[in-house]
Amino acid sequence: MKAMTVVVIILLTIVSLVYIFPIYWTLVTAVKTSLQIFTYPPIFFPTRFTLSNFYTAGNIFGAVSQTAVGSVPWMIDSTIVAIIATLASTFLIAAPAAYSLVRYIKSVWLGRLILFMTMIPEAVFMVPFFLIVVKINLLNTWWGLILVYISFTAPFATWLLMGFFNDIPKSVEEAAEIDGLSPYQIFYRISLRLVIPGIIAALILNFISCWNELLYALILTYSPFPAGAQTVPLFLTSFIIVEKSFAWGGLAAAGIFTMLPTIILGIYAQKYLARGLTMGAVKG
Amino acid sequence: MSEVVVENLTKKFGNNVVLDNIDLKIDAKEYFVLLGPSGSGKTTLLRLIAGLEEITAGSIYIAGKKVNDMLPKERNVAMVFQNYALYPHLNVYENISLPLKVRHLGPEKVKEKVKTVAETLHIEDLLQKKPKQISGGQQQRVALARALVRDPSVFLLDEPLSNLDAKLRVEARVFLKKLQKELGITTIFVTHDQAEASTMATKIAVLNKGAITQVDNPYDLYRRPNDVFTASFVGSPAMNLVRGVIRRAISGNAWTFSNEDISVSLKDIKLDADGLEVFMGIRPEHVRVVERGKGGIDSTVSVVEPLGSVTYVTVNVGKTQLILQYPGEIKLDMGSSIKIQLDPEGLLLYAVDTGKRLAIDE
């Protein structure tokens, strides 16, 4: 038993290191001077630090890119697009869809179809979505991205929430029915409140995937706020100055900026992602 | 006055007939218990009355109105669920007041009603707590309060005591009976526990496999069960049922019940039943221990269960096993032999082929 615990801890440490290392590497690269960045063998534990990567423009072979602190317009686009897409796909589509699938339609087949839709590579729809967005005149706008992101995040959120709605004891809803609540009131006043952990998990996961999305942002937008709607992943690409030449210091500094919201949300989401929250008043 | 009438009620889930042509009349203010083993359809019947299930055929009337197509909220019934089904995200006050709020009662009126019902059920101190912060017994009272707060015409209880421990259950039994009497609400109570049924009910309907076997008050149900199922289900320990044949003596009207182990003389039977295969039913308290030298049937003690006020003794007469209830304490060794006697007043006969009780003295 004791030996098992030790083995488990060692394995978990290794896995954690694999996941943490890229973040750590970004962090130390951001505070290294360009000389330290290109030193071989690489410096894992720098002793001298600089913050110049955050406010001076990236510079490779004399070519100049953005500065990390110049990310504000892209941040604005990302924040607005991610928040609206996330709220709309979770509350307007996923929650009502999941509830009606679980309580009214009760089709296992349809539930599986929704899960299957989350597995389709997003790139498959690149051409049709591009044509649609061009046709409805939403190229390089927030709404173009928002519509596409809703279509990608809603199936996953629906599938996630179906599990949560399934866990609500039927008797609680029946009690509400007898107490005189209409089906809409039961959904809004009882069931939706009982799946709040699931809603939060869905919101955070959806937000992260919208925030990180690159492919569609690349084809559907071409300039940042205020003229267009380019999001932060595209901002990061501006540190690639010429082919195969990266302004590593600036890229790492900007990378830290852009991953902050997702890291904070990820930490916050942890406890909600752990399923099996007990339902208080209901036994057996 | 809110009586509940069930007419020719049938409920099927797919091809599975759960309730088969049920007729039932529940008078206003009655404490009516639906008693049956699991799978007998008793909960389904309650849910049909509540409006939570759709009726396959037949009709239900509440207070003279046909409610077949009415929504649960239009029937003005209240229900307490086995797991209480409190709203976990609302505190006790909000739980109790929700049914009033959705009926658009004024805030003053809501406050007053919740206060009154909370006092009746002694839960005034819990109003600000969440369901998971209070005990099972308290949760049950909150569930009752939520049901009672809107003055329902029928009160439906689905095994509400089964999640309580033994001591609380007895308390809740007494409490519920008193409460029902005070409030005078027609109450339908579902249980599989016959002790619960007979202590609380004014009338009991016994269900088996989707059909009602008997509707009676607790006394008559216990004394004269209509068929073999009811006889063996009602009463603990169960009624002794001994298989044998009844015969009329060649001369006169004397009848005897006999099998290879026991022979018992019976009262006059005015039936053409000579040679009929029957179960002889006799409750444990009607099997008596007789002192030596005063006749009786020879038997061997196999199990002794002392309960303090009474002692249950299982005896064997040949291959026939009987359980008897001895008032008070008795010291017996296993394997020792005692004499027993069957009280003719307590004898009931059931036909083996139909399972129905023979009307031997009516």
Describe how the helices and strands are arranged.
The complex is a heterodimer of chains A (284) and B (362).
Chain A: H1 2-30, H2 34-37, H3 52-55, E1 59-60, E2 63-64, H4 72-105, H5 108-117, H6 126-135, H7 142-166, H8 170-178, H9 183-194, H10 196-212, H11 215-220, H12 232-237, E3 240-242, E4 245-246, H13 248-273
Antiparallel strand pairs in A: 1-2, 3-4
Helix pairs in contact in A: 1-13, 4-7, 4-10, 5-7, 7-10, 8-9, 10-13
Chain B: E1 4-13, E2 16-26, E3 31-35, H1 42-50, E4 57-62, E5 65-66, E6 77-80, H2 92-101, H3 107-120, H4 136-148, E7 154-158, H5 166-183, E8 186-191, H6 194-200, E9 203-208, E10 211-216, H7 218-223, H8 228-233, E11 240-248, E12 255-258, E13 263-266, E14 276-282, E15 287-290, E16 297-306, E17 310-317, E18 320-327, E19 337-342, E20 348-351
Parallel strand pairs in B: 3-8, 3-9, 6-7, 7-8
Antiparallel strand pairs in B: 1-2, 1-4, 4-5, 9-10, 11-12, 11-14, 12-13, 14-20, 15-19, 16-17, 16-19, 17-18
Helix pairs in contact in B: 2-3, 2-4
CATH superfamily of the largest domain in chain B: P-loop containing nucleotide triphosphate hydrolases
- Count of structural domains of chain B: 2
Instruction: Give the strand tally of chain A.
Output: 4
Give the CATH class of the largest domain in chain B.
Answer: Alpha Beta
Give the end-to-end Cα distance of chain A, rounded to a whole number of Å: 32 Å
- The CATH class of the largest domain in chain A is identified as Mainly Alpha
Q: What is the domain tally of chain A?
A: 2
Tell me which protein chains meet in the greatest interface and how many residues each side has. A-B, 25 and 30 residues
How many beta-strand elements of chain B?
20
Structural class of chain B: alpha+beta
The overall average pLDDT of chain A, rounded, is: 85
CATH fold description of the largest domain in chain A: MetI-like fold
Give the H and E element order of chain B.
Answer: EEEHEEEHHHEHEHEEHHEEEEEEEEEE
